[in-house]
Design a protein that fits this description.
300 residues, 8-stranded mixed sheet, 4-stranded mixed sheet, globular, disordered N terminus
Length: 300
Amino acid sequence: MAENVIRTRTLGAAVEGVRDQYADGKAAKVWEVFIGDKNSRTQNYKNFLIGMLKRKGCKRILDVACGTGIDSIMLVEEGFEVVSVDASDKMLKYALKSRWARRKDPSFDKWVIEEANWLTLYDDIEGLVGEGFDAVICLGNSFAHLLDNFGDQREQKQALRNFEKCIKPGGFLLIDHRNYDNIIDSGETAAKSIYYNPTHTTDIRTSVLYVSGIPALVSLDYIIDLSSDKEQSDFIATEESVSEFRLSYYPHRLKVFTRMLKEAFGENSIYKIFGDFRPLEDIDTPNFYIHLVEKYSTYF
């Protein structure tokens, strides 16, 4: 269907323990063009995230899946103090480029960007944690990039514990995943995203891998038409304007994921779930689940 297939280096890793599915660099560039800049973010998403952070009086934010930096840029512009990390150095170079371009702005000059591994996150950035962040965000289906290498989700649990250690008491984690329950049941993935308004045609082909009768991996083949992009010629030839690349995800079940969060943060923390940025009871079949976990504090 697509003439050009961008093959992600499945076994490549930016840092040990976290696979970099954008490691070939070309996939990272296509993805960066596809999702656009911060202005491509949907208004519902902007209102939800910025509104949540401001209502709770947040100042210091840790973006643990910053990618090309789109969310982090939005947060810096809104006046938050942001530390951004990602496992993919190929994705981070776009965030670093954006910071350099706006370095004369004091808020961007203070923006901290680091390559980090979720499995050793607290140790990697301990010097930046201080008394803890007001909020940690892990959005855009990013957490599902961490695959289950042992069959018991031990690495996912370890990553969540590291997120918890970076949050100050009374602070919170905002983390999401696609509705994999529905993807597994239907065999389809909605191409439209609640996060951004892409200007390029896209389709998503879905494959589910079962191991011993249990869904263990969901692979999404993204077909992206960049032919209308005037700037695409610097990295992809005209005859390759339709690009296809595959990303693989661990299919988090809602009940299991919620249970893992409670194991990491404890029963005394406060848990809420949203569907596509709305109260869960207001939507029948959301494309994304967004979890809000407020870390237990003796001051509650």
